[in-house]
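Re: weekly structure request thread

Next one in the queue (570 aa):
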Amino acid sequence: MTAGRRLSLFVAVAFAGWLAAACAADMGTQYQPVECATDAHCAEGSACSSFGRCLPLRDPVEVPLGIEIYDQRVGSPRLGQLILDLGPTELVPGPDGVVRVTVPDAFTIQGTVRTNSLDASVQALLLSYRLSHIPGRGVTSASQSLGRVNSAGAPYELTLVQPDPYVVQVVPQPATEFSPMLVYRQFSRDSLVDFTLGVVNYEVLGRIVDANGAPVPGVTVFIFDFETGAASTVAVTSAMPEDLGVFRCRFSDVPASLSIFTGAGSTGVVLPSVRFDVSVSELDAWTQTRGEDGYLTGDLIIPALAPPITFGTNVFGFLAGGGREVVSGAKVTFKAVVGGGTRDDGVIAAEGTTNTDGNVTVSLVPGDYETGRLYEVTVTTPIDSPFASAKKILEVGPLSGYGESIELERRVTAVGQVTSPDDGAPLSQVTVKATPATSSTGNPTEAMIDPTYQPATQTDSSGWFTLLLDPGYYDFSLIFPDRLKFPNTTFFDQIVALLRAGTPFSFVPAQPALVQVLVVDKRGMPLSSMEVRAYQVAAECPLAGECTVPAQLLSSARSNQDGRVSLIVP
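Done, posted below.
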């Protein structure tokens, strides 16, 4: 969706409308449910559902569908854990229309984590993660504490089921003396992987100076390699006269790129967090002329800014009756970009919460007498507030005090009804959740101030619901109780605005269909009590690979004694 957000929203809404119309045309008044006890009672291309109705079988690619399998067997050492996930291209129905899934035998990755020095020890955390096979489900991860690690070593063991490329990482806490270590490898059988903390194969040296060229002590420096995922030790710039402002970060392995992050110093001036990037080509050129042992950044310039002042503002709104009401408990964030010779500008940020009088005060880097400093101010209101979150630009001068007040708009009352696709009857006790819509980049639309604001409610006996929402675009998800045999349904990119506050939403779920899955072990024996969750992959996503648009949960069910499970899908 590169032609602009508004065009993409139009296309998405139009497609959703076409799809709903197509479903209604295919399975509306002509659709006659048939009761059944077994699949033999159903016509070709249909199967008997767990609630005794013949439903059409769907090809997982047509949905498109991904599944996750959780082990819910009583007494299983992996009880409640996700053990396998499969994307649309991996779910291939057999001649009988059933998707056969073979769960591999478990395997282990084990080893020892130790330090390379007899007198050194550190707390450490072990992480493992991999990319889900379902586009839009992100990263699957696990962690375990190793306790205190020394030269004697701490053993670990990971039990896995899905053969896949995995990252296994050891993170020292803190990482001031030892750098984090990781391995990235395809694992499919029992493997031994040891880690020795303290091995140094690469060093990055540099000096932090302010805009006037003066060295700055006490600045925290951390380096990340985005090409490999490796990280350095965390260093603090020196306060010693002979190497004032100098830092030294160590890597266990040779990095392929360098992104250098700096934190505040201790000079009495406020220093923002700044990131400096060293490209792959720069590192290659350095290595060719100077060797592979390390890199010298030279002086990295960060802005020298004036001491902070105390700045305050008041947050309020007007009620429907015209009365003025202060907003308490709102989170207020101030952000400003600063320059000063950095390769990437730094960002100053401060945050506070309004008190019972609607006032908030924070410490900010001021502007000067001529121009002031412009801050982007974000106000995030409590979930029960009648007022919407907002963004505003405020100018901060050189002196402490209160600035311009912030007036908030009222939230929009979104009203709608959920009805059955069979006869238009209202559907009660359906959970309706409003989630800020995401673009193809996975980011909320620009109009959404607070993407974490995701209110939910249930429909009443007449199928109606009411939600109080900030203006913007939302994805409305319908989550049905067990007695209503419909797949969970999401209506994308629905606009919520004051202009349409009186227009109710009308949501009709798709007619249910089935994807039947047979879960067996490596020897072909059926596996019962395996919880299978069905996810619909977003239309913007590829059928395989990464995607930032979230996959939507459609339904879940557990396999019976024969290892069979029927998933309700649209």
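Residues 1-31, 340-344 have pLDDT under 50 and may be disordered. The chain has two helices and 41 strands.
Next request, please.
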